[in-house]
Amino acid sequence: MKKKVIITKQADREVKKFSHEVQAKVRAAFWVLERDGKLVEPYGKKLDHGLFEIRIKHKGQWRVIYAYFLKKHIVVLSAFHKKTKQTPIKELNKARKRLKGYQS
Q: What is the extent of the structural domain holding 84?
């Protein structure tokens, strides 16, 4: 099912800090999300409570957190360079807060 990817201003600024190679991989993942409506492992993974992540491996680990909004939209909430084994709680909380702000 086709979806429309919407990138929040904050997430857009965070993605623009990535290298050009990582940004290209993120854009490719957005295209797959728009076309297929989902990503499968190892490229995507469900985190919790409606949050999902795009997983990019290129000279390190990069993550983009998103959520489904209404039935035809995907909202990109956060992007960061992953340096620990688990997704930092700080990043999850940031994404949840942005999603609440987007929903209101």
A: 4-103
What's the pTM value of the predicted model, to 2 decimals?
0.92
Question: What strands lie across the sheet with 4-7, from one edge to the other?
Answer: 4-7, 73-82, 61-69, 51-57, 44-48
What total of structural domains would you count in the chain? 1
The CATH number of the domain where 95 resides is what? 3.30.2310.20
pLDDT tens digit at each of 104 positions of the chain:
789 999 999 999 999 999 999 999 999 999 999 999 999 999 999 998 899 999 999 999 999 999 998 889 999 999 999 998 888 999 999 999 999 887 76
